[in-house]
Amino acid sequence: MEKAVESSGICKIFGDTEALKDISFSVNESEIFGFIGPDGAGKTTLFRIITTLLLPDKGEMKVLGLDCIKGFKELRTKIGYMAGRFSLYQDLSVEENLNFYATVFGTTVKENYDLISDIYSHIEPFKKRLAGRLSGGMKQKLALSCALIHKPRLLVLDEPTTGVDAVSRSEFWEMLKKLRQHNITIIVSTPYMDEAMRCDRVALIQEGRILSIDQPEKIREGFSRKLFSAKAAQKYRLINALRTYPGIVSAYPFGDSVHITFKDDIYDKSVHDHLKMLGLDDVIISETRAGIEDRFLELMEKGSTAQSAFAKASADKGCNGITVRRQELRND
């Protein structure tokens, strides 16, 4: 299978911050490939290197068979990029923005209308409206139309649905699926786990390192412990109480519940006595299936343990240690 993107040992440093650390992965042609990670994980930096907007400090990146440094001019005609922040001209109308981007790439809206018709048809009735006056979902559709108007072979989307309502998010992903008919490869980042499940493969990224790459379902299956869900009226009191119980290994918020793991994977029912002593007598605990975010947090824990050990060894040798900062994913 042909590769749309091949990354080998990519590193990027900003001052004292190593934003990307030995990033290696590949994306197949016509694949929807997702990146999942908290803010500051390095997703935007990586996307800017893929789209030739930023130079790597180390490593090699090939995009559509071209070196991202030597072949940047040609690549920019073959890549569509939708930044995380709405970056179109807000004082131009919908129609004017689209015509402008078509002209920049030496094409016309009419020439490639078939590619954007499913998307643009939602906002075409408002084509005279200024872009700055559009709703979040309409801005999203306009930005995607502008990114596609030159018929790119690779589409890079940086958290395209953040801050958009659930209906618009679902519509957006249906549109992405239809784009596969045109043999367009899509790389997308998202903080939403339901969107991650729609990707062919996903990469979990944290503090500039890739933790895992696989099909979403296989990542879920990689969770190594029995997982339980705890519910109570006072969720945040419940989290703190669970974390003080010696038999609990981990406790993280998940929607309206708390996901917990026990030592030796054994449901220790005496935890209820502990919770009652702390004023929580309505707690319901049941076994549940792990999601991608559970696996992500588990990998973060393992990475933190390994880095803490390395930091201690470095300190013993008089070297600088590594500070590990934990962040929680947003749930939807």
CA-based shape: globular
**For the residues shown, what is the average pLDDT?**
88
Strand order of the largest sheet: 6-7-8-3-9-10
Query: What is the CATH class of the largest domain?
Result: Alpha Beta
What is the CATH third-level topology name of the largest domain? Rossmann fold
Helix content: 25-40%
Could you explain how this protein is built, in words?
It is a single chain. A six-stranded mixed sheet has the order 6-7-8-3-9-10, with helices on both faces. The two termini are 34 Å apart. The chain has helices spanning 43-50, 72-75, 94-104, 113-120, 136-148, 166-179, 193-196, 216-221, 235-243, 271-277, 292-316; strands spanning 3-14, 17-28, 32-36, 58-63, 66-67, 79-82, 154-158, 185-189, 201-206, 209-214, 227-231, 248-254, 257-262, 284-288. It is globular and about 70 Å long. The chain has two domains: 3-214, Rossmann fold; 224-288, Alpha-Beta Plaits (2-Layer Sandwich). The chain contains eleven helices and 14 strands. With 332 residues, it is of the alpha/beta class. 33% of the residues lie in helices and 26% in strands.
Features:
332 residues, Alpha-Beta Plaits, 14 strands, four-stranded antiparallel beta sheet, alpha/beta, Rossmann fold, 2 domains
Question: How is this fold's topology laid out?
Answer:
Blueprint: E1 3-14, E2 17-28, E3 32-36, H1 43-50, E4 58-63, E5 66-67, H2 72-75, E6 79-82, H3 94-104, H4 113-120, H5 136-148, E7 154-158, H6 166-179, E8 185-189, H7 193-196, E9 201-206, E10 209-214, H8 216-221, E11 227-231, H9 235-243, E12 248-254, E13 257-262, H10 271-277, E14 284-288, H11 292-316
Parallel strand pairs: 3-8, 3-9, 6-7, 7-8
Antiparallel strand pairs: 1-2, 1-4, 4-5, 9-10, 11-13, 11-14, 12-13
Helix pairs in contact: 3-5, 4-5
